Amino acid sequence: MAKEKYEESSSDEEVDSSSDEEVDSSSDEVEASPDEVESSSDEVEASSDDVESSEDESLSDNEKVEESDSSEDEVAPRNTVGDIPLVEWHKDEEHIGYDIKGRKIKKQPRKDKLASFIEGADDPKNWRKIYDEYNDEEIELTKDEIKIIQRVISGRTPHAEVNPYEDYVDWFEYEDKGHPLSNAPEPKRRFIPSKWEQKRVANLVRKIRAGLIKVSDQQKEEEHTAYLLWTDDTDSVENKKRGGYVPAPKPKLPGHEEGYNPPVEYIPTAQEINSYELMFEEDRPKFIPRRYLNYRSVPAYDKGVKESFDRCLDQYLCPRTRKKRINIDPESLKPKLPSRKDLRPYPTTCYLEYRGHMGPVNCISVDPSGQWLASASTDGTARVWEIETGRCLKIWEVGEVARQICWNPSPDRPILAVVLEYDVLLLNSGMADIDIQTKMKELLHISEPGATEDAGDSKSAVTWIQHEKHDGIRMKHFKAVSSIEWHFKGDYFTTVVPSGDSKAILVHQLSKKHSDKPFRKLPGIPVTAVFHPSKKKFFVATKKFVQVYDLSKAKRIQKLETGVREISSISIHPGGENLIVGSKEGKMCWFDLELSTRPYKTLKTHSKDITRVTFHRTYPLFASASDDCTAYVFHSTVYSDLNQNPLIVPLEILHGHKPEHGRGVLDCKYHPRQPWLFTAGADSTIKLYCH
Amino acid sequence: MRAGPREKRKDKKKILVCRGHTAHTELRPDRSLSLFRSYLHLPQSATMPPKHYRPPGKKKEGNAAKYITRTKATRHLQVSLNTFRNLCILKGIYPRVPKKKFEGNHKTYYGIKDMTYLAHEPLLDTFRQIRAHEKKIKKAKARKNKEREERLCNRMPTYKLDRLILERYPTFVDALRDLDDCLTMVHLFASLPAVEGERIQVKRIHNCRRLSHEWQAYISRTHSLRKTFISVKGIYYQAEVQGQKITWLTPHALQQVLTDDVDFNIMLTFLEFYETLLKFVNFKLYHSINVKYPPILDPRLEALAAELYALFRYVATGSARRPAESKFVASIEEKKDSNEKMDTAESQSDLRLAQLQHQLPSNEPGALMQLLEDSNNADDEVDQDTIECKTLFKNLKFFLSREVPREALLFIIPAFGGVVSWEGEGAPFEETDEDIAYQIVDRPTQGHKFLSRHYVQPQWVFDCVNSRIIIPADEYMVGMVPPPHLSPFVDNEAEGYVPEYAEAIKQLQAAAKKNVMPLPDLDDQDLTDPQNLLAEGVMDRTHANEAAEERRKLQLLEKQYHDELKMEMSGITYSATLSNKKPDNTGSDEMQHKDEVMVPVSTEKDDEDDRAKLYMSRKKRGLYEAIEISNQRKKDKVALLKERKRKAAASKSG
């Protein structure tokens, strides 16, 4: 700028304009150089050498510009004393300072004020002159400079040609950016190669050369190479498969029906194909055989890919288990039973039928001598039959449904106990000689009705009344009676009233005509109650358990857990140590009282309710009767040796009864001395099975 | 072997359904809560511990220690479900059924040991790398950085499966045993359309084609094909390699249907493993017959899509030079140090042979026959079955018409010793060749016929192969409806029903063996013994048994009659015999017979059944009943077949 001034001071307008142009061009140059820098910086990434050279160029450009500036500066100031208070310090001196070579610059001789005033008044340009104290000279300002000063004073830019709102030109441009992230100059590290990259490249080169890293072409080549994977030493122990691996089962091999041309008999008829539609989708055959008359007419199988896919799914989604395929003769599963021939005699065939009842025969009972059979039926009669002939000897019209009948086990008391709805009738059977007959009449006579009634309760459980019609005793219970059982000596008997709560089980004494309720509380609703055949024990069956009481100690001894849903009947082995329980779900449990309170053996025999189970008095036999119209005969040997378990062998299944209203055989009883079985059916017949 | 199909299906459904899973529950007690509680002096029982509480220090026990659910397993391995699936497929890991499904019934359980086995698998890491790599590619793609994307695509981490194969099949026989699915899958993919832009890469389909041809070439060359069957689904083949029966299915050579309800990712993962497996198996098999693998094929034949034939030629030449080479090997073995030299020599000779092969006039049948004969003489130690197979079509020339499925027959006929040619370029001999014995055609009528040859339908070849005899071609002539095609995989005797044509074939076989037809009127003694009949080969087992049964019944009745006569003579009453009757069958044989005759057999038998059943345990009774039911079902099926047969015969005659 100083140079400009310098030149301007001694030049006219034209020069000015030319100098202006010069300035413009130089500024153009300056402007252009960053462009160059930018373009070269683009190239930086490509090659650093390039960058350097271009950088040099740009730098040299800059230097030229600066040189010209500095040369101008050097000419201009002649005084070199610097910024000192000249007026004060050099007031009395001859010089005002020193030039660059150290020579003193003399003070100009002072013009006197008048001369200078005249000179000023003459000179029209005087107002433009300024005295420069520092250099001790007068400077004449040019027009432009005046203009500049005026512009500065008025607060505008010094040069009129300067456009303060010029468009912004970005001198550094990224390739993909809208604006520069930072205005900072390029750092050096962008222009020199990285040491670490160089090291990494060297490392990679080394690895590629060593073959540790494969270039893609090499890899592809290696993919195809197969080699001998299984050599002889792969069979060694260490290479064995891990345990528990189950190979996938092979797919099923095709049968004749899958052929393209199967035999005629493998092709289902149209009717059969239609019937498949009615099946459940899962049961429907997946594949329907078809016949093609020649090979060329076989179409592509449309489910081929799908089936292959399903097989894939099976292989990785299905759990695999090793299943033992049993290829055995089913007969070998059957247990080895002792031959039936050795276990004779036992009832096998129906020998006699006792007909006469008009309704289902609910109960039968054989007299202890084995001559007579008593039966109770729904038709309201109780009958006595002669066993060997099948003749009906006596009929009692009781007027109600006779539920149960029971002979007195004592031979010198031929008394029958018949259970009706609420009553129990004690009848003189009349099947004895005259002495006993008279005794019985005495026994079954109540002099004072109601005298033996137990007075303890407000509402008596049982009332003993003389029955006029049949010449016996009528015991009136307060609720329905379900079963009756005699004590083996024939004096006591027990009746069960299931809904009787504390009076559910009653024990009666015939000779005293007395009733007693032994239990204050029962653990459930009783089903039946039985006396032990020889000891003072008493068995009460509730729905799921059998309670065993000691009568002498008046205390419970055992509680047998049957595991069945509902007990229907129980029977005690004549030995007294074993017990069978029949249930309404057709199961039969054998208990060994010495062994455990759980069943020794449970047999699922019948498909319907078991109505009665019974032991034979003398033979090792027992039987069960059921509503499915069958009766099963079993052999059962109980050994005196405690270590040996009882032997139970199913012997015979007796058919013969017909179902009536869903009921089959209602009762079964053994003959006391012969291996004969009586069964009473809902079809109102009684049958005798003999060996 | 595993659960029945329906049960299995259900199970799978369950698994497929339960993809979206429930929240992960941890059985450990909440530590912070308990601390907090102790700090506040709250009683521990303020909140009840979870039902299956396990104290912190205690190890898991029972099923929980042995099994893990799938969700937990994937979390444990830190992989996605897809990666987990691929790993399971490649490693051959399948779900297990714990005795107690401790996490619920609807979940899939894997063995803990299997999962630790997976956790140590290097493939797991490779899959992670691949996943990371895929992310990079995705990123590059999103930034439209094509260059980087391309570069990354080329440098995808790869893995090899050979180690896995050796792990899964430690011995070669193990691999052969499991080859059924592999072959079926590879053959299926070989028949899929090799179209660019489909879901399957063309490269892989070509690879499958190559592998399947290599396998077929080996089977054909060693004559180890045993059974073939044209079914609706495709053609079944059964071969016997090293004592293992390998069955596979090839689809019919028609356009395959690609359905949308198939997840090809799963199939391709399987295929990936199978391709590698078959490659190594083929290598081992080719190695065993001294042929170099992979084979170098005649490019001309390859271009004509007759790769199989090209392979045959390659294999035949490869093994033909075996004797000479073995000598060479023997001499070499004396100086053991020069092993490497031999290898190079071998490869060089291979190359030379391949070159020579190209120069051979391929149309000249004589040269081919020579080669085949050479190869036939080569091996001596083979079993009877192979010899039988090898000589079935020996010295017979076949010609395939244009419409006949070429690949199947080109595979089967040489496998049984025949020489085959086809209509088209590159065929070894022309249709006009006078020596052709059988021309296989599948068209309604044949225009020009050579009198010297039979024109048969393709089924004839399959039936001949299955029965191992040359069946008279009368019934298989052009334009006729061929006799029923029977499956060779069915044991007719075990099924209890023998189709009519099977019997006819049996008679032909017997005739071929003895060269005489058995006389229909044999004497009585022979008829009673089923073994005799079987030996004659006239009757099959079921029929023989039936006949013997009838015979025995007759004898029994006769005996009873005699016994009764005797008793009458001696004056024993009928009732007495009745009381003497012995109701059990375990007595002496004579008594048993008498019993059976006296009492109506059925009731007695039923009674005995029921009696024994009573005493069986519940488990055994169930088993017994199940066996009875299945037997009954089988009988019903046979009865249905017989009924249909009867009706068909009636409708035909009436």
TrEMBL record, chain A:
InterPro entries per UniProt: BOP1/Erb1, BOP1_N_dom, WD40/YVTN_repeat-like_dom_sf, WD40_repeat_CS, WD40_repeat_dom_sf, WD40_rpt
Predominant place of localization: nucleus
GO terms assigned for molecular function: ribonucleoprotein complex binding
Keywords: Nucleus, Repeat, Ribosome biogenesis, rRNA processing, WD repeat
Ranges for domain BOP1 N-terminal: 90-347
SUPFAM superfamilies reported for this sequence: WD40 repeat-like
Bias-annotated ranges (Acidic residues): 9-60
Family under the similarity heading: Belongs to the WD repeat BOP1/ERB1 family.
Protein known as: Ribosome biogenesis protein BOP1 homolog
Organism, as annotated: Rhynchospora breviuscula
Automatic annotation (TrEMBL), chain B:
Ranges where the BRCT domain occurs: 388-478
Coiled coil (residue ranges): 123-152
Gene3D superfamilies tied to this protein: BRCT domain
Gene Ontology molecular-function annotations: ribonucleoprotein complex binding; RNA binding
PROSITE patterns: BRCT
Location, primary (coarse class): nucleus
Record family assignment: Belongs to the pescadillo family.
Protein name per Swiss-Prot or TrEMBL: Pescadillo homolog
